[in-house]
Amino acid sequence: MAGYLARTARVSTCSLRATYSSSVVRTASLSTSAVARASSTDAKDPQLGDYPDLPPINLQTRRYDPRWWDPQEKRNFGETLHEQDDVLGVWAPDVHKTPAFSALLQILTAAGGFGAFAAVIYLSFPGRPANPRTYPREGLATELGSELVAAAKEGAFDGGEDGEEDEAEEDDE
């Protein structure tokens, strides 16, 4: 049992050293405002008391090692948790390594691909399977009683045939 604990402690210190890679430290040290930069250089948080002030390293950035005591959480038995462990754990929102420009380019490429596919389908889709119906003698105006009842010629509808404009003029007076 003592050998197991000693080996676990040795793996724990080795894995902690391995997690302090330069990209992780640079990512952890980035901040967006002067207030955040000023607070990162301040002394230890007084509400922590004697709890260790650990660097904010996301557990997703740790390498997988089958010797972890908890391989899913990537931590060892007895390892001190960070104060913000719920935000820095593997179940927290993902840490993205894709630059914003690359992500935008990927989204625009996908949208362009979908648009090109839709254009090909639209242009290759055949027309109507049959011609539109045509009526002789001005759309059968005399047979149906008047031109208002007859079938409209293609492109002949202008809205004024129904008397819509006449009603609008009468309301204005």
Short description:
With 173 residues, the protein is mostly helical.
Strand content: under 5%
The N- and C-terminal alpha carbons lie at a distance of 102 Å
Question: Helix tally?
Answer: 7
Residue runs with pLDDT of under 50 for 5 or more positions: 4-38
**Mean model confidence by pLDDT:** 71
The run of helices and strands is HHHHHHH
Q: Tell me the helix content.
A: 40-55%
Pfam families: NDUF_B8 (PF05821)
InterPro entries: NDUFB8 (IPR008699)
Keywords: Membrane, Transmembrane, Transmembrane helix
Keywords:
173 residues, mainly alpha, 7 helices
Walk me through the structure.
With 173 residues, the protein is mainly alpha-helical. The chain has a domain at 2-88. The chain is 46% helix and 0% strand. The protein contains seven helices and no strands. The protein is rod-shaped and about 100 Å long. It starts with a helix and ends with a helix. Residues 4-38 have low confidence and may be disordered.
Helices, strands, pairings?
Layout: H1 2-19, H2 22-29, H3 34-40, H4 85-88, H5 100-124, H6 136-144, H7 164-172
